[in-house]
Amino acid sequence: MRTQVxxxxxxxxxxxxxxxxxxxxxxxIILERQTADYVLGRVRAGVIEQVTIDLLDRAGVGARxxxxxxxxxxxxxxxxxxxxxxxxxxxxxxxxMVYGQTEITRDLMEGRAAAGAPTIYSAHDVxxxxxxxxxxxxxxxxxxQSHELECDxxxxxxxxxxxxxxxxxxxxxxxxxxxxxxxxxxxxxxxxPVSEELIYVxxxxxxxxxSMRSPTRSRYYIQCGLDEDIAAWPDDRFxxxxxxRLDDEARxxxxxxxxxxxxxxPLRSFxxxxxxxxxxxxxxxxxxxxxxxxxxxLNLAASDVAYLSQALIDHYAEKSDAGLxxxxxxxxxxxxxxxxxxxxxxxxxxxxxxxxxxxxLQLAELDYLFRSQAAATVFAENYVGLPY
Length: 388
Ligand SMILES: Cc1cc2nc3c(=O)[nH]c(=O)nc-3n(C[C@H](O)[C@H](O)[C@H](O)COP(=O)(O)OP(=O)(O)OC[C@H]3O[C@@H](n4cnc5c(N)ncnc54)[C@H](O)[C@@H]3O)c2cc1C
What we know:
Layout: E1 5-8, H1 12-22, E2 28-31, H2 36-41, E3 47-48, H3 50-58, H4 63-68, E4 70-72, E5 74-79, E6 82-87, H5 88-92, E7 96-98, H6 101-115, E8 119-120, E9 124-129, E10 137-142, E11 145-150, E12 153-156, E13 174-189, E14 199-202, E15 208-214, E16 217-224, H7 235-242, H8 248-253, E17 259-273, E18 276-277, E19 280-282, E20 288-289, H9 297-318, H10 322-349, H11 356-371, H12 373-384
Helix pairs in contact: 1-6, 1-9, 9-10, 11-12
């Protein structure tokens, strides 16, 4: 088999790249380890930046998002029971949209199927060959049979635990990492959200986030230890841990109900650089991870794909490799700013230590954010997403 661009992974990065390339006449084959149903069942991101919205439109898959997504002009931050609002619209003229990653994935999968572009699900033992040469190849097995795919380029879009990054010789890759000593315990429930906007909560008992997927479906998170056992968290215990962290209004509006999904996510900051090795280009979580505070992961995957798709389009249409040569530097410049913002939000809103000096500094950061228009503008600019 042969294709122009072999894409490893059918998450948002791989599917979006495939869609943008296909619309520009470039052949791709996506190899995905899981089944399509498994990929669709993963509940993850929910907040997308204006630039990601525009990119999904460009990929021709924005119609349902425009119809069903919830536009948010601002965000709320609650500090020890007192709520403050930051208006994106007033400070930047922009907004974000709440539209679940599962919905984006479904739209992209349907777009790809309608275009007749191939995705091979349940592809096992994926391995990359000759990535530093002119004729890279990808081998994999399907239903017990071995296959090989020849290509011009490989896009490693296979997430943090994927195989692509591990194929780069260790001397050619530098990893920067911070692991946080806490995680997020999250539940999804078919109950109305406590607020029309997201509420980030900084509380003595720990961080919480009140988020949503629709006017009837809520997503809540609370800070938890890394060693928590999900089985020890029946729904009632979750609601009882969330309730005291909220302000009076949110507490009164909180409607509890059975969870339809419950999971624990560890928090990590990670960047591997450069994001290119020979004919292999890393994009999305394969190259970098942010803690979910600030909602940047999916959005960064999208901005990588914006740079990479344009570079590949220029390669085939203009015979120019300038975009491919600049890809890693351009993507990393944006990645590091999102890493900084996600790290700052994580360190400011979580209970990070018992040290009263550090706690006072957190409160001073937040007080400054609420009182200074300059500080609020910096926050809003980063939250809605920096331009490409
Ligand atoms: C709890 C939680 C909340 C989040 N909230 C937000 C948010 O609000 N906003 C936001 O922007 N981001 C958020 N994120 C982050 C976001 O979900 C990720 O950044 C995003 O999924 C990255 O997309 P990706 O395509 O790069 O990687 P992935 O979504 O991880 O996709 C990679 C794909 O590659 C496949 N794969 C892996 N290994 C192989 C292999 N060897 N061979 C073939 N296929 C392989 C995987 O099965 C997967 O389908 C959140 C994440 C979590 C966990």
